[in-house]
Design a protein that fits this description.
There is one protein chain. Strands 1, 10, 11, 12, 13, 14, 15, 16 and 17 form a nine-stranded mixed sheet that branches. The chain has an eight-stranded parallel β-barrel with strand order 2-3-4-5-6-7-8-9, surrounded by six helices. The chain is 31% helix and 25% strand. It has two domains: 121 residues, Lyase, Ornithine Decarboxylase, Chain A, domain 1, CATH 2.40.37.20; 222 residues, Alanine racemase (TIM Barrel). Helix 2 links the parallel strand 2 and strand 3. The protein is built from eleven helices and 17 strands.
């Protein structure tokens, strides 16, 4: 008989299976409807079993943020991995060369110096790796700003051994700072159009640009609809969280992840203390430096605002009599991706019944 969640010690991550499956289907249908490949970013969940679920639903491969995440996923038998980040330094590049023989690997680059570093290592190993030039479409993080700089990097790559230019990529994370749906729409369309324009320029110069990879959960339906985009790369969509709700990207009912926590103290009539603090919920109140939410998570059912966090404690203000000592409550986190990196395991559930314990195998893979 399935376990009842009241028997699980807290704090702990719960993943609602029916919502998870619905979110996976919806994004796959979006990609299929727009005629683009779906590449799922596993930094959001870091769980090989969930990556396999996404691949079974139709995703063509995964993306990772860290080399360590890629190694975990390759260990789990996943064969198509894009490292959507810049890999620099001899130790990491040695690992990259070793990993290359175990899966189909694609790497982001945004400088001639890094391209040469990768080229040197792969040519010595008599191997070749596909790369995507990273373009800045407004986030102002990694990525080249101008088509001229992209052309210079493409030209350099063409002269190097052990490295092959396969396409372009971007991440429009600045959509998380948008103030309304109109602004998200503008960012999403611009994200796709800038990549397509850049690809056209490079093709005219004789570069065989095959992959045009774009995406973020807020802009997914917009950038994937731009003619010429070939790949939608998204991660948070399978869970959603209060950041997505605050952006009006999705309703509360599509949030699959909650933190199960226990009320441990009622020091005053209006204040309740729970056993989930910043080490369980993170301190995120937005993404990429923005603050979209007024609390540290949404308490499901009843009044009460999760107003403050210390490391091991959450402080609920305006608490009602519902918050009794020993009472277990569920909280939708502000940023599900950050939360998943704080735990070793999560539980896949159906309401109050546990279906399966999941190992978050790629958590903490910082290198």
């Amino acid at each position: 008989m399935p376990k009842i969640i009241d028997h699980i010690d807290t704090p702990v991550i719960l993943i609602e299976k029916s919502i998870l499956e619905k979110n996976i289907r919806r994004m796959q249908q979006l990609a299929d409807g727009n005629g683009v490949k779906l590449r799922v970013h596993i930094k959001s969940h870091k769980v090989p079993a969930l990556a396999r679920m996404q691949l079974r639903a139709g995703a063509t491969g995964i993306a990772v943020a860290k080399l360590g995440e890629a190694e975990v996923m390759a260990d789990a038998g996943i064969k198509d991995i894009q490292i959507a980040n810049i890999i620099v330094g001899p130790e990491k590049i040695k690992r990259l060369v070793r990993l290359h023989g175990r899966c189909r690997l694609t790497l982001a680059v945004d400088s001639i110096a890094n391209a040469k570093e990768v080229s040197d290592a792969f040519s010595r190993a008599r191997k070749s790796i596909d790369v995507l030039i990273k373009i800045n479409t407004g986030l102002n993080r990694c990525g080249l700003d101008s088509i001229e700089d992209v052309g210079k990097l493409a030209g350099a790559i063409r002269t190097l051994r052990g490295i092959r230019l396969r396409g372009l990529m971007t991440h429009a994370g600045h959509a998380y700072a948008a103030h309304n749906k109109s602004e998200i729409r503008r960012i999403g369309i611009s994200e796709g159009e800038k990549l397509v324009e850049c690809a056209a320029r490079l093709r005219n110069l004789g570069y065989p640009i095959e992959v045009i990879s774009a995406g973020s959960t807020p802009t997914a339906r917009l950038c994937s609809a731009v003619k010429g985009v070939t790949e939608l790369r998204v991660g948070n969509y399978m869970f959603n969280d209060m950041v997505q709700v605050s952006l009006k990207v999705t309703p509360l009912s599509n949030c699959a992840v909650t933190i199960l926590s226990t009320v441990i103290s009622r020091p005053t009539q209006g204040r309740a203390i729970i056993d989930a603090g910043s080490k369980a919920l993170s301190r995120d109140r937005g993404a990429h430096g923005t603050e979209l939410t007024m609390s540290y998570g949404k308490i499901i059912g009843g009044r009460g605002v999760l107003k403050r966090l210390s490391e091991e404690h959450g402080i609920i203000e305006n608490a009602t009599a519902r918050f009794r000592i020993g009472q277990k409550i569920r909280i939708i986190p502000n940023h599900a991706c950050a939360v998943m990196n704080l735990f070793d395991q999560a539980y896949l559930v159906d309401g109050d019944k546990v279906i399966k314990k999941l190992e978050i195998s790629a958590r903490g893979k910082m290198t």
